[in-house]
Design a protein that fits this description.
By secondary structure, the protein is mainly α. Helices cover 73% and strands 0% of the residues. It is elongated, with a radius of gyration of 16 Å.
Length: 163
């Protein structure tokens, strides 16, 4: 199913986060990993993009989805994953992540995004009217105003290796 235009801003943010996950996974597979540099980049993604993304989902998207009983357990699961991911972001900010945690973080973030795209977004597009989707889009646009629209460029130890 094509993505409804009102969800595209969230999908664009998902694409950027998935790119981060792929780069982390490739770096881990390549052998030498600059854990400190990755933690800096993870923190930057959170501060410039993901914190606004999570807030938009939690304040706008998830409440809209919870109007449908069949989506409530999925939303509960996604909220729990947000909390787990916030823990990773906090550890990255405190520079407490090791190589194993980098892999766990990338795996969780990637699966979380795919769940939102493939399950939540698809279901909402089927269940909501065009007018409801347009209203949701307006609310999301307002909620995402603080997020950076610029790409976060790899730096130092995260720019090296296969991409």
């Amino acid at each position: 199913m094509l993505r409804d235009q009102n969800l595209i801003p969230l999908s664009h943010q998902h694409q950027r986060a998935l790119a981060l996950c792929v780069r982390i996974e490739r770096s881990l597979d390549a052998s030498k990993v600059d854990v400190h540099a990755w933690q800096l980049e993870i923190e930057q993604h959170y501060l410039q993009d993901i914190q606004f993304h999570f807030a938009a989902e939690e304040q706008v998207l998830f409440p809209a989805a919870c109007r449908f009983p069949e989506l409530r357990s999925l939303v509960k699961e996604l909220l729990q994953e947000h909390e787990s991911l916030r823990g990773f972001f906090e550890r990255a900010t405190r520079r407490e992540m090791g190589r194993p945690e980098l892999g766990e973080f990338a795996k969780l973030l990637s699966s979380h995004i795919r769940k939102e795209e493939r399950q939540l977004f698809e279901a909402m597009q089927k269940l909501m009217t065009a007018g409801e989707m347009a209203d949701l889009g307006r609310q999301l646009e307002l909620s995402l105003q603080g997020a950076s629209q610029a790409c976060i460029l790899p730096q130092g130890g995260t720019a090296k290796g296969p991409i």
